[in-house]
Amino acid sequence: MASLTVEKDGLRSRKRKRRKATSKERRAWYLYDFGNSAYAAVVLLAVYSAYFKGQVVGGAEGSRLWGIAVGIAMLVVALISPVLGAIADHSATKKRFLFFFTALACVFTALLFFVQEGNIVMGMLFFILAEIGYRSAQVFYNSLLPEIAEPDEIARVSGIGWAIGSAGGILCLLLILPLIMLIPGDFIVRLSLVITAVFFAVSTIPIFRDLKEWAEPKPLPQGGSYITEGFKQAFSTLRKARNYREFIKFVISFLIYNDGIMMTMNFASIIGAVLFGMGQQELIIFVIVVQITNVIGAYVFGLLADRWNTTRALVVSILTMVGAIVWMYFTYTQWMFFLVGAVAGFAMAGMQSLSRTMVGTLSPEGQSAEFYGFFAVAGRTSSFIGPTVYGWVAYRAALWFESQGLAQLLAEQNGQRVAILAIGVFLLIGMGLLFTVNVKKAQAAIAEAEA
User: Fold this and answer.
1) What is the pLDDT of residues 214-243, one digit of tens each?
2) Nearest to 62 by CA among 319, 450, 390
3) Contact (Cβ atoms closer than 8 angstroms) between residue 146 and residue 215
4) What is the per-residue burial (b if ≥16 Cβ within 10 Å, else e) of 100-125?
5) Residue 151: pLDDT band by 50, 70, 90 thresholds?
6) Residue 408 domain flag
7) Could you give the number of structural domains in the chain?
8) Is the pLDDT score of 308 beyond 60?
9) DSSP labels for 218-254?
10) Quick check: 47 and 264 in contact, CB under 8 A?
11) Helices H, strands E: what count in the chain?
12) Is 380:75 a contact under the CB 8 Å cutoff?
């Protein structure tokens, strides 16, 4: 536990003299999260996941195919993120990559409007492309954090960004909810995906207009290209990894506990629909509650990181999430599920925001996009594993319960409860590994490498 007490001093020791970010640049960075979170709230949490599972596919097979779709998208991002991150660092083109993948996410989110009952392949393909854009863009968005915050400001700025982002998700859901309440049928559900795409796109305008990327491109060797240099840099980082063992240990820890986050996020609406019979209106209200507590959680855990340190605050957030998962397993009423969701939203904000902060803390300067790329590999790899495992467990358990004579709906509900337990397992293993990360040793290794 000694590593938990030294983080602030390590962060302060890494301050460097450089241009101070303007308030306009920080607002632009915050507003990107404002739109980005609308995608997460509508596509992943409240609307499309439940629509795909219930209307496009139906039954336990919907859970299995949803897990596969999420897993494919995450696997693609895991494969491309390290190299693209290295290319962005070498060519100083983080914003160009950010623009491309943001556009990909917005376009294919809007195209989900055309997915209707039985369009399984289209529904999976368009979602996979939108998800690749959304997740890949986060690599370059996160890597801009060191451009707008000093090392000892990263926890606070990241927490504010997360809170503002959650507020964006709430606002987009509030725009959609009255339409779904007033207009019955699937058309308005599908139209909500177009509204989300426009909301996301408009919110990203300030970051491309107002935030300047100050990194300078590195000169290319004769006959070289940014692509070849990107590959070289990525492999070079792998070879140098022994100098950043604490970063690698944190990434492994994150890979495992992030499984729990991704499983919860990607199946929350499916759990609500299957276990508690929640319709689209109830699911949107549920996600609004989760997003509100997400705002509170991002702010509170940001304060705790400043008062204690990032690692200790992160451990508390994981423990809170484990408690929410245990509570969810024993929950049988809809109103209690709302309470569980509120606690889970509070905890997940801390886990996600503080994990992003840890990467900035443990990364060498000048290689932020590259290290955030490797962070994305862990996150996307876990996103591939977690949802796929959850969907498979829920599906296989439902088949087993049905073979024991249970009715189809009851068998599917029991299958969901078995899958919920898997979330807690990933959280606890990841938290145990987090205790092995020594931040003081990490700061010393970075200082040595920079010298």
Assistant:
1) 767 777 667 667 677 666 766 776 666 666
2) 390
3) no
4) bbbebbbebbbbbbebeeebbeebbb
5) low
6) yes
7) 1
8) yes
9) PPPPTT--HHHHHHHHHHHHHHHGGGGHHHHHHHHHH
10) no
11) 18, 0
12) yes
405 class by beta-carbon count within 10 Å (0-12 exposed, 13-18 middle, 19+ buried): exposed
Q: Which tokens sit at 231?
A: 């590959």
Q: Is residue 220 part of a domain?
A: no
- 219 found inside a domain: no
Q: What percent of the chain has pLDDT over 70?
A: 86
pLDDT for residue 10 is more than 90: no
What tokens were used for 318? 């994981």
Provide mean pLDDT across the span 34-55. 91
Q: Whole domain around residue 352: which residue ranges?
A: 2-11+21-211+230-450
SS3 content of the chain, % helix, strand, coil (to 5): 85, 0, 15
Tell me the pLDDT band of 54, cut-offs 50, 70 and 90. Answer: confident
CA dist list (Å): 179 to 34, 53, 114, 174, 182:
21, 21, 18, 9, 5
Residue 375 belongs to domain with CATH number: 1.20.1250.20
Nearby residues of 153 by Cβ (< 8 Å), 6 or more positions away: none
Q: What is the pLDDT of residue 355?
A: 87
In this prediction, residue 381 has a pLDDT band, given cuts at 50, 70 and 90, of: low
> What is the DSSP annotation of 59-88?
HHHHHHHHHHHHHHHHHHHHHHHHHHHHHH
Nearest to 320 by CA among 391, 264, 238, 385: 264
